[in-house]
Structure formats: C-alpha cells, structure tokens
Design goal:
alpha+beta; about 950 residues; 5-stranded mixed β-sheet; 21 strands
C-alpha cells in the first residue's frame, strides 16, 4: 500500500536529505573535463551527471543546447548565470555555425529600440538580435544571429525552421518553442490550465525568487497558442497535404468511428447488405450546458476567426441569420411556465452575457460530439415565434420551438448523410420539442433536412422520471424499437470538463472561445476513439449478459399465461410500435390501485350475515385491527419517554394505558359473544421489530425508557400496550376449521389483505415524499437552518415508514396464521427488509429511472386480488409486466445486434482513414509530407 512505501521512506529520510544537500557542492571542481588545461568553474543543471567546464568549453558543448541552465562556482557556492550572459550566440540557418555571408544582406542592423541592444559584455555583434524564447523549462533571452545568404528566408521563417514559433511575422522579438506550445495545449486539455497560470509556472521555473524580473509574454502566449492550435488541426486532418481544397463545415473535427456513415464505414447502398433488424440507425442525444457562458465583447467586429464552423461550433454568420429571422414568443405552454420564469430571472442577473450557455448534439451510443452542431444560447433554450401563415390570427401564427436546438439537430442529421432516413432524437424536453418540429422545418429556410427524414423523439431515462406520467410510455427509450440499451444521458457526463474551463473562456473573444470549445470537444472525441475497442467489447459482454437475464424470465412468464391473452397483447404491441403516439399507452396500467381495506369492508359488510350468520362481525374485526394500531402508537409514545421523565409525562402515558386497556376489555367481551361459549386461548401479542423502531427515538435524540421497565411501573401484570388481543387469527387455521371458525377467519383474511394493501400504498407514498425532501430540500439546502429543517421532515417520514412496515408485518403474520397460501405470501405479500426502504433510486410513479434492470423493491409493483374486480386488475398487472418484460428483452437483443454492426463499422472506419493517408502519401512531393503521411 501507499503507507508501506511511506514507512520505507522514513527509514532513509535522513540519508536522502544528506545526499540532496551534498549535490550543492561542485563535485567536478578542478581541471575542465573537455580541454584538460583550464580551471573548471561552470556546471550544467540540465545535463545528466556531474560535469565541470571552463568558459570556452561550456559554450562549445552547449551550442545546440540553448535551454540548459548553467551555474557558476565562486569557490564557495553556485549562482545562476545564463548562456547569453556568457556570450552564447544562436546561429540560424547553418547547423549552429555562423553564416558565411555576414554583411551581404540588407537584413542586418534591425534591432528593437525597446531593448538596450547591449549585453553585460558590451554591444551586440553585427547582424544579431536579442530574442526572448519561451521554453517548457523557462523563459530565456538569447542573442540570435540571422542567416544573410542570398535568397535566405525572412527572420520569422528562420525562427520557424529552427523549431521556434515567432510571435510576430514582421519584426520577431519573441518566440515559443514547439515543445512549450504542445505542453500548453496538453495542459489546457487535461489540467484545464489557463494561459496565465501556465505562464506563471514558467516564470517560477525561470526565477522563483524574483519572478518580476522575467519578461512578461502572457499576451504573446495567448496569441501564438491560437495560431499553433490552428496549424496543428490542419496538419492532423490532412489539409497540409490537400492544399487544393479548403476545409468545410466540420472538416476539422473528429467524429465517432462506430456510428453508421455511408460511404465511410459502410457502403453507400447499405440497404442491400444489411437486414433491417434495427429500426433506427442514427441515435442523437441533445442537451444544453448553462455554465459555458460568454460575455459581451467591446469590439466584436475586430474579432478574427481562424476556424469558424470548421470544428464543432456552428458557423457564426449563418447561425446569426437564423436567429435574426425568429422573434421570441410570448405564449408558451404551461410545461415551461416555471422553466421560462427561471430563465428570465437568470437573464436579469447575467445581463452582460452574449451567450448564456451552449447546446450540443452527440451520438447517443458512444458520446461523441457531432461536428458543426454546437450552438450558443441567448436566453436559455428559448421559445420563438414563427409566422407560418402570415396572417393576423394569433392561433394560426404562433408555434413554439427551441430555435437554438432546432438548428443543432438539423445540422446533426445533415452531417449524418442522406442515405439513412430514420433518426432517434433524445432530448430532455423531447415531448414538447417534437410537437411542431416538422412545421418549423417546412416553414423556415435555414432549417433543412434530407428528404424522407423520419424522426422519433424520446426523453432520457433520468429526466423522464421528472415528467408527468403520460410522457413515460410515449417517450421512454424502453419502448422504442431499435433504441438498444441507451439511457440518453451520456451528454451529462461530457459537460464536466467544460464546466472547469467555463470561467476562463467566459471573458475570451468569441473566436478564441470557439476554438477552445472546439479543441476540448475534439479531445473528448479523441479519447472516445482510442478507447472504442475496449468500449465495444464491454458492450458486447454486457449485451450477452442482459439477454441471459431477461430472455428466460420473459419466456417463463409467457408460458405461465393464457395463449389467447398473450396473442392479444402481441397484436397491441405491434400496433403500438408501428403507429406510436397514444397507442403506446398500453405500457401503462389502466386500473389505478388494488382494493383498499375500506372497499373490502364495504363489500364484506353487505354479505356478512349470509357468510357467517353473525351480524357485526366485520365491525368487530375492524375494531381489533384498530386496537393493534393503538397499541403500536402507545409503544411509540413510551419509546419517546426519557429516563428522567417528569411526573406529568408519566401520568400522560399511564392515562393512555388505562383508556386502551378499557377498550381491549370491551373488545374481548364482544369476542365472547362472537365465539358463543367456545373456549379460546389468550390473544396474539405483537412484538415490534426493532429494525423499524429506530426513527421513533431519533426524533427526540435522547435516551429512552424501555417498554418492560414502563410496564413494571404501572403495577399491573400486563400493560395495555403488551396485552394480547384475541381475533380469529389467534388460532391456527386447522384448529379454527375444527372449531367452526373458518368463516370468521376468511373474513379476517380479506381484511388483513386490505390492511396490507393500505400499508403498501401508504409506504410508497411516504417513500416518495422522503425522496422529494432529500432531492429538492435537503441536498439543495442553502443554510444550516434549512438543512436541519429538512432533516426533521425526513425523519418524520422515516417514522411514518416504520409505522407502515410494522402494520404490514402484523397483517402478514396474521395472514400466515389464517391459512393464506404460500404462493401469495412468497410472491405477493413478501417480507420487507430495511435495505428495500432506500429512496436513492426510487420514485412513486412508473416513469422511474432504472427500469432497464427493474431492480426496485417488490412492493412498488405488487398487488393482489381474487374476486372479479381484483382479477381484472391482476390481468392488467400481468399484461403491463409482460409487455415490459418483452421490451427489456428486445432492447437487449437489439443492443447485441447493434454492437456487432458497430464492430464492423469501426474496422471499416479505420481502413477508410488509412486509405486516405495512403493516398496523400502517394500524392505528396515533399519529403516531410510523405514522412508524416506514412
């Protein structure tokens, strides 16, 4: 472990420190190691090993090592000195040797007036210029001697050929090594380092004691890094070779190798090769990020774009033309009332923003940003007004649309190509966005789609749980043929890096910000690309496991159902997949709830005399169940009594005990009349499961008195809360039949089932309330008071949850004694475990997140019944569960099919790229171009 290594270090810490301090002396003091004749006084910190040189030998040995750091030994200690101070001259154009044509060119003598043109040793040699060179190890000032041969390159090109990028092309006085520019780009991508922080690091590496003495080249770094990024991108994408054509929209962007791209990784006439086993071949996910903001520029007209629309961000001129043709709508659906008011509030706060965020479209299966599809938001994903019929009637004139997202989606579909017609678009508010999308495309010339394009809208699985229940069957990915196993939330994972760079990019120029965002999206896609083989293998294994987990249960469920019902459900499913819309409502339950105890009581009361020959038996049984609940409530009160309780507190408990004891005594008197002289044993005593009692004591957060202790203080043999209550369930079912109490037990069994149903319904509701408290109040609490208040509310929910569970346990235990069949107890009324009461991933509605695995606690989907009404509900319950089980299995089958296709498409994509670079290799006429293409 890490601690073991640190423990080993402690044993050698003093030795390590002694060796490090020993390196501060001049180990090679004496004769120069090169000439063997002069006293050695210089050492190099950058060279490996210990060395000692005299002045001339030091300069000769470092003629091609201008960025090494030199130390001078003064017979006592080292002090830093630069090569330039020692007379080092950097000769350009002749392999480090002086130019043989000094004085033959008109280029000599141009020195920067802002520099003294002298060194500590005196005036600069003829035809030289002091240049500040920024390297990955620090900032250096060197005297550069230019090549003056006839036909020699201008100074900025001489620097470029020497591996130095000039900050100016007219009179270069600053240059950056290619290495430091590469380091900066990688630091920006991986560490999210700003240009200021990066340059301050270089300043500290140069002179940590006096950083103010280091030349400030921050602005030059900002400018040169943009140029370097632009050149690298054009080099990577082959436009250094394909000089006959300029890059078009999205040509400087990487895309997903595993998504279908006719003509690239699949044949143009793919329909003749592939069977139509998958309904949708393009799967897009759309989302917005409101952290990636941008401030208004003072002089936007002066901004110069280097790659406008060539990467992932859309071209600015065309996008602004699209925005200018749309005006903001004043009429929005009720779905967006709260949403729009929030955005308006944000707009007032961020009034100086040119963009309030960005909207993106990516491939839903692999999370790769789609080129030329990223748009800026102005007022959130705002609503616009399109003049469709150009008449004055408002109802004919207005339709709502996401003007920004429309543009992004249309560009994404056009980038995908025209030979694949079907697209699946996953959007957080896809239910609203899709309503009039076709109208907007038809009536606005900047929104265009390929002919025969068919779009199916869906909502991501996590966001769908926040929609109303009606959206669930119509927009769930679980019920879309061809969707495979996608959650539609992959873009959420891609925004994290952008949130880190947003503060830096917020105040950049628009062009610079666009390049930064393009670069990070390109890097994100690159990481997806290099990991694609591993990703596809994981998907393949996961798909096979998913089929194994869902196929057999579905087949077992099908075999247990009537063939006629299954056949009818299959017809409904086929119609729903073909026509969609309201036909998808077959995936929702049509009977809301199982019968409650009140409903059961009403039906039993109507027939109680005919069944048992005793009037009032139902009321008596109901009274017994209420007495059990009263005992439970009294035990809760006793658990809350502190050990140092006052006399008044104890008196209140004692008064409750006496009243409850009187009620129980009266109940037993009625029981004697019901039994008609039959001798019965003592009633059932209920012991609370302490796993579901902790919340009672936590509410007061203090030590409490035990029930048995409280019972002793009453002076009675048995306290009221511990008394046994005699009911038909107090006798085992075989004994009750022998005593002729079978009819009473049957009535109690029905009531206990109603009690259990009521408890489960209340349990679901309280768990839902607790989830809301945790998600909307506790997690977002902005003060200690709010957090404490939320905790108190959550604890009250826990108390109600425990109460429901204890009541359910009493009902289930009674059902066991009343002879309920084992199948009902094992499959319908199961035991509740504490781990099943978590609300981390549970919701009270059917549109919950995580249905692909359906691992929620059993009581979220269970109900029971045996009479005609309840039998209809069970048919409905089995119908919906059968349809969902089949949908889960089909999505995994589609996933496996898609992964197999994607493996082939990936191989074809790499072959296509390989062939492209081979073509460039054969066309290239320059050695460097051929070497890079190879």
């Amino acid at each position: 472990t890490q601690n073991d290594f640190i423990a080993e270090y402690l044993a050698y810490r003093d030795v390590y420190l002694d060796i490090i301090l020993g390196s501060e002396t001049f180990a090679c003091a004496g004769i120069c190691e090169t000439c063997q004749s002069t006293q050695a006084t210089f050492n190099c910190m950058t060279c490996t090993g210990d060395h000692g040189w005299c002045h001339p030998c030091l300069i000769r040995s470092h003629q091609s090592l201008p960025f090494h750091k030199i130390q001078f030994w003064n017979n006592m200690c080292f002090h830093d000195i630069t090569l330039a101070e020692l007379g080092f001259i950097w000769y350009l154009g002749h392999g480090g040797e002086p130019c043989p044509s000094h004085g033959a060119s008109e280029m000599n003598g141009h020195q920067d007036e802002r520099v003294d043109d002298v060194t500590e040793a005196g005036s600069l040699p003829h035809n030289t210029t002091p240049i500040t060179v920024v390297h990955s190890s620090g900032v250096f000032t060197h005297v550069v001697s230019w090549c003056c041969c006839l036909g020699s390159n201008p100074q900025h090109l001489q620097l470029l050929r020497a591996g130095l990028f000039p900050a100016s092309s007219t009179r270069p006085r600053t240059a950056f090594t290619f290495e430091v520019l590469d380091h900066f780009l990688i630091d920006a991508l991986e560490c999210k380092t700003s240009a200021r922080s990066f340059y301050e690091k270089l300043t500290c590496l140069t002179n940590n004691a006096f950083p103010d003495t280091v030349p400030d080249r921050y602005r030059e770094l900002m400018r040169v890094s943009r140029l370097w990024r632009d050149l690298k991108n054009r080099k990577w994408f082959g436009f250094g070779h394909d000089t006959e054509s300029e890059p078009g929209p999205g040509d400087l962007a990487l895309f997903c190798p595993s998504c279908p791209q006719p003509g690239i990784n699949m044949p143009l006439h793919w329909k003749q090769k592939y069977e139509r086993q998958v309904g949708y071949y393009y799967l897009f996910v759309v989302d917005g990020n409101f952290t990636t903001q941008h401030m208004n520029m003072r002089q936007p007209k002066l901004d110069i774009f280097l790659s406008d629309g060539l990467g992932y961000m859309v071209a600015e001129r065309e996008y602004q033309a699209h925005l200018a043709s749309a005006t903001e709508s004043r009429e929005v659906s009720s779905f967006f009332l709260i949403y729009s008011s929030t955005l308006n509030m944000l707009e007032e706060i961020h009034f100086n923003l040119r963009a309030t965020g960005v909207g993106a479209t990516a491939c839903a299966r692999h999370g790769c940003f789609i080129p030329h599809c990223i748009v800026d938001f102005q007022k959130g994903e705002r609503q616009v007004l399109f003049n469709i019929l150009k008449i004055n009637r408002v109802d004919d004139k207005i339709t709502s649309s996401h003007m920004n997202i429309d543009y992004s989606i249309c560009n994404a579909i056009k980038h995908a190509g025209e030979t694949i017609d079907n697209s699946l678009v996953i959007y957080d508010v896809g239910c609203q966005w899709s309503l009039h999308f076709a109208e907007r495309v038809n009536n606005y010339y900047n929104l265009t789609l390929p002919d025969n394009t068919e779009i199916v809208a869906a909502v991501g699985k996590f966001h769908l749980s926040a929609h109303k229940l009606a959206c669930f069957p119509r927009y769930s990915l679980n019920f879309i043929a061809g969707a495979g196993q996608v959650d539609g939330e992959i873009l959420e994972t891609l925004w994290a890096p952008f949130n880190k760079i947003s503060p830096t990019a917020r105040s950049m120029s628009q062009a610079h910000r666009q390049e930064i965002l393009d670069d990070h999206m390109r890097n994100s896609n690159w990481k997806k690309l290099v990991q694609i083989i591993k990703t596809l293998l994981q998907k393949y294994k996961r798909a096979n496991k998913g089929i194994d987990d869902t196929k057999v249960p579905f087949e077992e469920l099908t075999s247990s159902l009537e063939v006629s019902k299954v056949s009818s459900w299959e017809q409904d499913e086929t119609q729903a997949m073909e026509q969609r819309g309201e036909h998808l409502d077959i995936y929702q339950l049509k009977i809301d709830k199982a019968p409650t105890m009140a409903e059961i009581r009403l039906r039993l009361t109507e027939t109680e005399y005919a069944d048992t020959g005793k009037c009032g038996s139902i009321s008596w049984l109901i009274n017994g169940i209420h007495l059990e609940d009263a005992q439970d409530a009294l035990r809760v009160d006793i658990r809350k009594v502190p050990k140092d309780a006052s006399a008044s507190q104890k008196a209140v408990v004692e008064e409750k005990r006496q009243k409850l004891a009187a009620r129980i005594s009266q109940f037993h008197e009625v029981a004697d009349a019901m039994m008609e002289g039959i001798e019965v044993d003592a009633g059932t005593k209920h012991m609370d499961d302490m796993r579901f009692c902790a919340a009672d004591m936590e509410e007061e957060a203090r030590e409490t008195e035990d029930i048995e202790v409280a019972s002793e203080e009453t002076g009675e043999e048995v306290a009221a809360e511990a008394m046994g209550i005699w009911m038909p369930s107090s006798i085992l079912h075989p004994d009750a039949l022998a005593l002729g109490l079978g009819a009473l037990q049957a009535e109690e069994l029905h009531l206990r089932q109603g009690q259990a149903n009521d408890c489960l319904e209340k349990l679901r509701q309280v768990l839902g309330h607790k989830a809301i408290i945790y998600r909307q109040h506790f997690q977002s609490a902005d003060s200690t008071w709010a957090g404490t208040r939320s905790k108190q509310e959550a604890n009250r929910c826990r108390i109600k949850i425990d109460k429901c569970v204890r009541s359910y346990q009493r009902a289930r235990n009674a059902m066991q004694r009343l002879g309920a069949d084992e199948d009902t107890l094992e499959n319908v009324y199961q035991e509740i475990q504490p781990s099943q009461l978590s609300v981390d991933r549970e919701v009270t509605e059917e549109n919950r997140y995580g249905q692909g695995s359906d691992r929620l606690a059993w009581f979220w989907r269970v109900n029971n019944g045996h009479d005609s009404h309840e039998g209809a509900w069970m048919d409905e319950f089995y119908r919906v569960n059968w349809l969902k089980a089949k949908a889960r299995w089909q999505r995994w089958e589609e996933e496996l099919s898609l992964v197999r296709y994607e493996m082939g498409w990936t191989v074809s994509w790499f072959r296509y790229k390989k062939e492209g670079w081979e073509r460039r290799f054969h066309k290239a006429t320059k050695d460097g171009h051929r070497a890079y293409a190879q």
